[in-house]
Amino acid sequence: MYIHFIVGARPNFVKISSLIHAIKNYNQEKTVNFKLIHTGQHYDYNMNTIFFKELGIPQPDYFLNCGGGSQTTQISKIMLEYEKVLNVDLPQYCVVVGDVNSTVACAIVAKNFKIKVVHIEAGIRSGDTTMPEEVNRILTDSITDLFFTTTLKASNLLRNIGVESSKIHFVGNTMIDTLLRFKNDFRNPFENTERTSITEDKFLVLTLHRPSNVDNLQWLKSCLLEILDSTKNVNILFPVHPRTRKNLELTGIKSDRLILLEPLGYFEFNFLVGNSIGVITDSGGITEEATVLKIPCITLRNSTERPETVTTGTNVLIGSNLTLLRKYLAKILNNNWKESDIPQYWDGKTGDRIINILLEDVHEKK
Ligand code: UD1
Predict the structure, then answer these.
(1) Could you say which DSSP state residue 94 is in?
(2) In terms of pTM, does the model score above 0.85?
(3) From the alpha carbon of 285, which atom of ligand 1 is closest?
(4) Cα of 31 to ligand 1 centre, how many Å?
(5) Is residue 180 part of a domain?
């Protein structure tokens, strides 16, 4: 079996690490070969290199260098560059993960070359097509040949849009494989620094990067002011995504309690989440990690493609409602959060399930 794994952006690295680990575990007889294609969508040390080092991901076999630019520029550049790769190096499977620009761009090119497209995290939908990720999900699933899902709900959605059941496999969550595998490596970013005391008191973790939250200066300002006003005496640790940096400065907000950090590596970020009293975010992946780490999570979005983090897990959706933000922050501070559980198959074995199914698929074809 010969696979191309596509990665481009930070959450992709976390998911692909699970699959590469599963192959290493399985690969006694070297029956699974793969190459890693990195589109270069994320390229900073803290958004990219550190994840490869920490998560045991090998150096990419091809680096397409397609970072920056608008969504259209990015997708079209990636398509042109991946086409050059496929002109000389044809796999049996092109495995794409999640919903970023690199996912849809490479899926389309692989399909043009009649390569089987495999989508990990297929079938999830927020219903909000103003978000580029939702468009990427719909387009990718419309040309996928083998679908791996994180929940039964996602599998059902695919069936309801006409995908044959035999092509859909409910396997669980690769992001959680990686979280569980590296739990003992998480480390305090302030250890051995002058700021060790920061994590001794209660703190919240904040992450924001969605255009709807960070490109609207007035909203970003109101939201940060509300968080500070509702959480007297509690530090807010805020690793700032590159997209967020400029507008954050323009808000002019400064507070000793709002502790701005560079984007963190995986081990340091998840140490903070796991030791916080709660997380405020607009990321999808973090809502899954907070669920498994049993940390209260407030999501600044109106919808989610991961409803199980709300119905089963620790997450609540508040959109842009500042009254709800205040209410839920009070609940976190009063240690009064809802009961939660961990969704089925989010158990650390998803990568193994996927590789076994791919091997069966290859054998069936022979
Ligand atoms: C992308 C994904 C989003 C995912 C997020 C995780 C899409 C449509 N969006 O959003 O789903 O949740 O990654 O972080 O694919 N930049 C840097 N250095 C970097 C990476 C980005 O400076 O290492 C800059 C880019 O040049 C760009 C901005 O940050 O100006 C946004 O990057 P981009 O890859 O377009 O999207 P993200 O907002 O990171």
Answers:
(1) E
(2) yes
(3) 12
(4) 35
(5) no
What residues make up the domain containing 247? 189-333
Kindly state if the Cβ of 41 falls inside 6 Å of ligand 1: yes
For ligand 1, the distance from its centroid to the CA atom of residue 41, given in whole angstroms, is: 7
- Gap between the Cα atoms of 95 and 146, Å rounded: 9
Residue 48 Cβ < 6 Å to ligand 1: yes
Instruction: Say yes or no: 43 and 144 in one domain.
Output: yes
How far apart are the C-alpha atoms of 161 and 198, rounded to whole Å?
Answer: 49
Query: What is the torsional sign of CA 5, 7, 12, 18?
Result: positive
**Count of residues for the chain?**
366
- What integer pLDDT is reported at residue 290 of this predicted model? 98
237 and 325 fall within a common domain = yes
pLDDT value, residue 314: 98
pLDDT of residue 287: 98
Is residue 23 located within the same domain as residue 136? yes
Cα-to-centroid distance, 42 and ligand 1 (Å): 6
Q: Is 75 in the pocket of ligand 1 (CB under 6 A)?
A: no
Query: What was the pLDDT predicted at 208?
Result: 98
Residues in the chain with pLDDT values less than 70: 28-29, 366
Structure tokens belonging to residue 121: 């995290």
Residue 160 lies in a domain: yes
Query: CA-CA distance, 186 to 176, in Å (whole number)?
Result: 14
Residue 341 counted as domain residue: no
CATH number at residue 309: 3.40.50.2000
Catalytic residue positions, numbered? 209
What are the backbone dihedrals phi and psi of residue 103, each rounded to the nearest 5 degrees, phi first? -60, -55
Burial class for 362, CB neighbours closer than 10 Å (0-12, 13-18, 19+)? middle
Token couple for 40: 């270069």
Amino acid symbol at 37: I
Hey, which bits of 145-232 come out as E strands?
Answer: 146-149, 168-170, 203-207
